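Anyone up for a design puzzle?
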């Protein structure tokens, strides 16, 4: 039986007063209201409000919402922090994602009726409380004037579905079905770890629920017989009224593919695209930065450390809200894209992403395991996917990748990882834009997972991952050419460094591994090793395409 840790609600902040906010179905959601305390802005004076709706305890130390609310109130904003439905002090069922549109609307409506509100509302937050912003925006409430979603996506946490018209799909995260069994199982947060060596995850989920004596509503809606409840009543989150959005993406955020998918979807809606502002930082999901000082790269930051980090986290949001909520200045005063070239301290501004002046370059893998500027002779390279000996994930927590900054060089020494490397650079090269690969692959097993990692190899041999992507090929005994999106990068590759590519068929436990038989990885069962093949050289061989702003690759 697993050890289970329950985390109940923390004491509500003395800086706030509690509120119970009634939804349209009578359910009461718990909120903390923070009001400015400066002499010139009394509690009774109506003003602009920032709403934060989250499932991680509005009063707890994981998100430090009281500290963040204090920073916002120091800038004259009222703040409402709310536990979403079914979490911590809020009533209702702990049901992932599906209630956030209506609950967001009803909460904004409640705010507009309070004596301290002037009827203008903005929203801020990361991850799930970034998602609740997209949901509230989709509700169409006219009082919502701006949002600032960070490291999130409208399809956050959604299980991988099969499209019968396609042979490829995403690879399922290990966290997907664990999240509704931990963070979203009941009102309290419930922490437990499966036995990752067993891999019969469905059985372990049942054992856990039997041990605690209750089932998880969010888990049961997804597995084993999924009930597809709509997140957005209109289907498309961007189908209705648009809201100015400062959209923050992290270069090392494991959820960045969801963010970039929303960027592409927003481009197809001119009313949203006109009000979409992009900010791209060298952060992971938990906001650790690439160039963090050692004293800031700690797992449990103190409230004082969080306070010190707030200007770099929140000041861009305050500047955005100053324009779109308070009406100070003009939208033209704001850069449409603000981005960090990773490896430097500089934040750059551009009118578009990618910035003007970039060019695409392609490098081709060879049988000699190099990356060249032209295809060479065609050859086939093989590796074996052994479910009993999986390629390990490089970081113990994918959400905090930059906390660990793992050296992935040793992963490339494994027999089940193909490795391709460029010559050393003679001068710095700046990348700014999308990265993708083309692979022609085949397997002797029914399902083949393809993981591609792009690395910066320093002269001392250490390797930092700078981009990645993965796809699953169905009916994999039939050869197929697939495209894998590695996301976007803004990165300076220094002189003397090399590019390296790793290709494998597992990344465990961050992603659920294939048993080799075509069986459901969450259920597991008997296993079989698979021989995987990759074509290099010739017209259809492996090709890596990058976007360069400055410099040349060898």
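Challenge accepted. My sequence:
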């Amino acid at each position: 039986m697993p050890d289970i840790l329950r985390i109940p609600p923390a004491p509500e902040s003395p800086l706030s007063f509690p509120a119970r906010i009634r939804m349209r179905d009578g359910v009461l959601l718990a909120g903390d209201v923070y009001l400015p305390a400066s002499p010139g802005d009394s509690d009774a004076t109506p003003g602009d409000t920032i709403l934060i709706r989250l499932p991680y305890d509005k009063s707890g130390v994981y998100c430090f919402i009281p500290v963040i609310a204090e920073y916002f109130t120091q800038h004259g904003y009222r703040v409402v922090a709310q536990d979403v439905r079914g979490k911590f002090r809020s009533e209702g069922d702990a049901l992932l994602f599906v209630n956030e549109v209506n609950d967001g609307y009803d909460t904004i409506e409640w705010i507009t009726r309070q004596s301290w509100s002037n009827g203008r509302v903005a929203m801020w937050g990361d991850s799930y409380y970034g998602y609740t912003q997209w949901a509230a925006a989709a509700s169409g409430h006219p009082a919502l004037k701006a949002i600032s979603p960070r490291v999130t996506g409208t399809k956050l946490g959604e299980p991988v579905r099969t499209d019968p018209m396609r042979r490829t799909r995403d690879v399922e995260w290990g966290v997907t079905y664990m999240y509704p069994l931990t963070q979203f199982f009941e009102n309290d947060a419930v922490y437990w770890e499966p036995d990752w060596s067993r891999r019969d995850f469905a059985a372990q989920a049942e054992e856990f629920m039997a041990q605690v004596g209750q089932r998880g509503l969010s888990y049961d809606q997804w597995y084993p017989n999924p009930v597809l409840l709509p997140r957005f009543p209109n289907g498309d989150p961007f189908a209705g009224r648009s809201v100015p959005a400062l959209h923050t993406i992290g270069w090392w955020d494991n959820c960045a593919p969801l963010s970039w998918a929303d960027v592409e979807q927003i481009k197809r809606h001119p009313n949203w695209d006109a009000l979409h502002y992009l900010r791209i930082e060298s952060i992971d999901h938990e906001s650790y930065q690439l160039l963090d000082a050692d004293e800031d790269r700690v797992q449990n930051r103190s409230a004082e450390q969080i306070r010190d980090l707030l200007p770099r986290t929140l000041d861009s949001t305050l500047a955005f809200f100053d324009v779109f909520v308070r009406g100070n200045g003009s939208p033209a005063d704001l850069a449409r894209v603000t981005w960090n070239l990773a490896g430097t301290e500089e934040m750059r501004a551009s009118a578009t992403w990618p910035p003007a002046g970039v060019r695409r370059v392609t490098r081709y893998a060879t049988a000699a395991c190099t990356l060249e500027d032209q295809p060479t002779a065609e050859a086939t390279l093989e590796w074996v996917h052994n479910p009993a000996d999986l390629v390990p994930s490089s970081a113990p927590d994918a959400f905090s990748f930059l906390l660990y900054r793992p050296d992935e060089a040793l992963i490339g020494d494994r027999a089940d990882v193909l490795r391709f490397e460029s010559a050393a650079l003679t001068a710095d090269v700046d990348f700014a834009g999308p990265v993708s690969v083309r692979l022609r692959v085949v397997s002797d097993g029914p399902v083949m997972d393809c993981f591609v990692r792009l690395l910066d190899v320093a002269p001392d041999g250490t390797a930092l991952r700078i981009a990645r992507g993965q796809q699953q090929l169905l009916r994999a005994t039939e050869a197929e050419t697939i495209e894998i999106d590695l996301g976007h990068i803004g990165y300076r590759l220094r002189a003397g460094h090399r590019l390296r590519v790793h290709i494998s068929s597992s990344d465990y436990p961050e992603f659920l591994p294939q048993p080799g038989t075509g069986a459901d990885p969450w259920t597991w069962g008997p296993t079989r090793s698979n021989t995987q093949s990759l074509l290099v050289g010739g017209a259809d061989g492996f090709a890596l395409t990058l976007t360069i702003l400055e410099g040349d690759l060898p």
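A detail worth pointing out: The first helix runs from residue 65 to 74.
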